[in-house]
Amino acid sequence: MKPLIATFLLLCCGFVQAQDFPAGAYGHEYTAQAGDPVWNLRQVGDGLELRGNDGAPPVLLHSLSAEERATFWLKMGWPQAGSAAASCAGTDDDLFCQVPKRVRAGISWLKDNVSDFFYYSEMAGVMEISRLPPR
Hints:
Helix content is 19%, strand content 31%. The chain is an alpha+beta fold. A hairpin with a 4-residue loop joins strand 5 (87-90) and strand 6 (95-98).
């Protein structure tokens, strides 16, 4: 009976395995024109193709495994339990993550973010980004 109750709680409360990072256009508040896309992510097979607005060739991102997300959370010093609810895709240089509000609330760096999305790189650090509506 207890495993059934635990399963029910996990499903009803949203503590399920993270989904793949969603394709789409993403931007941030530092663009010249509000709403300008900075990155376009398109589903290609099992991964995402990243095209920036800098003219560089597209790059293939992979969905981070649970272990990779946990390692990143540890590197950032964030509560480990939250990594299971996140979805992230990236390369060695770029990382895009979607983190639900209930998880962001426990992370000082993300708790004030309005958007569920952030971008991370060694150079830029953590930056709130937003998914833009299709044009």
